[in-house]
Amino acid sequence: MDALSEAGYRNIAVGGAAVPAWRYWTLFLLVTMATFSMVDKMAIGVLLDPIKHDFDLSDKQLGLLTGIAFSLFFAVAGIPLGIVADRGNRRNLIAICITIWSMATAACGLTTGLGQLLSLRLIVGAGESGATPSAVSMISDLFPARERAKALAIYYLFTPIGSGIGLTVGAILVTAYGWRTTLIMAGLPGLLIVVILLLTVKEPRRLNTHGHLDHSAAAPPFREALKFIATQRSLLHICAAITLVTIAVNAFGMWMYPFFTRVDHIPPAAAGWQISLATFPASGIGMILVGIIADRLARRDERWRVWIPAMLAFSCFPLAVAAISAKNPVVGLAFTGVWMVGGTAWYGASYAACQTLVHPRMRATISSILLLLTTLLGFGIGPLLTGAISDFFAPSVGVMSVGYGMVGANLLALWGGVHFLLAARSLRHDLRVVSGSPSPSNGRPAYQR
């Protein structure tokens, strides 16, 4: 076998207490890989105003740069790369993707106009599209279902960690060296991760719903996988909820730095670390705690994997209003930190539910579909929506218009919370379907494998 002996996999299936250290080493590397991806996203947010002044852009154009430009090729490349991940070596695919987006990010610092910058952001989006579906699929095979929310919560720590690094270090670097050098420096570390990944990580074998080795010879055709996904009503609601909340989160998160520098007049060099200190530690702690709590409560009732995200989603809008309305920047930053918990702590529980609702050879495919939706709409529409609302209200309210955009977009989080609640209605039925139905790849019931 490539990574584990069959006995080792059987130990996972029966719930053995020993967890090989290499599993956590693999998880650590996957978190590190995704962190650099997030640093790239947030670094662009820090660089918005310098790029705007350099290229004489509007806020709507900045929204285009941080949103559609990044996500367009993601829409084109994400699904095919997810299909490849369900059929081939996920570790090697991740290595290729890291190399592509790292080199493209560094090249962004050499551009001379908006057109070149947009083109390179398309390549960055294409590179990043294959990494997370492969990583989530690998984690789902490394950890049993009862620990999956915690493991995926650890993986999604890349969001607060990468965002914190991107804002803090990005703000320092752009102040000292300018936005071009900052982008070059942001792109290079990913190449080191590629070397370490290839030297120390092996491709894990795939496990079925019950934690046993999946003996499927091949993944089902994409059309057949889509048909199965379409029958899982709870999964469709979770996908809708994740997409809507992600739009709201990115509409707010990508504009935090411009808001606090424009409205509260926090110095640019200080704004990055102040926002990071106020938001991302709380987000990381919240993600881990919610992942652990969801795993424990789900042993009694699997619906907690969507009930908890629903409660968090409903908290986003009022917290966004409180953060933007605060007269004191310290109070505003504090509310922003609590908002970040509501906007991100649901990751482990909801993504674990998605992985459990499909067959093993569909896990990267469903992850790529989700990543397509959250990137194309979340990163694509979210920042652009805030920028458009900001431009609309700017003549009447001035710099505060960006806050209007951040709050208005968070109405979508309420809609997402409704879909989480709707998912609970059919979740237990759909889990029974995937646990006992034949896998499209070999026609044998999962419980017989």
Q: What pattern of helices and strands is seen along the backbone?
A: HHHHHHHHHHHHHHHHHHHHHH
Q: Radius of gyration, rounded? A: 21 Å
Number of domains: 1
Number of helices: 22
Question: What share of residues are in beta strands?
Answer: under 5%
The CATH superfamily name is MFS general substrate transporter like domains
N-to-C terminal Cα separation, in Å? 18 Å
Structural class: mainly alpha
> How confident is the prediction overall: mean pLDDT?
83
Uncertain stretches? 1-18, 441-449
Q: Largest sheet, if any?
A: none
Percent helix, as a range, is over 70%
The count of DSSP E runs of length 2 or more, i.e. the number of strands, is 0
| CATH classification class | Mainly Alpha
What can you tell me about this protein's structure?
The chain is mainly alpha-helical and 449 residues long. The chain has one domain: Growth Hormone, Chain: A. The protein is built from 22 helices and no strands. It has helices at residues 6-13, 21-46, 48-55, 59-66, 68-87, 90-108, 114-128, 131-142, 148-155, 158-177, 179-187, 189-200, 222-231, 233-253, 256-262, 268-298, 304-325, 329-344, 347-356, 363-397, 401-409, 411-436. The model is unreliable at 1-18 and 441-449 (pLDDT under 50).
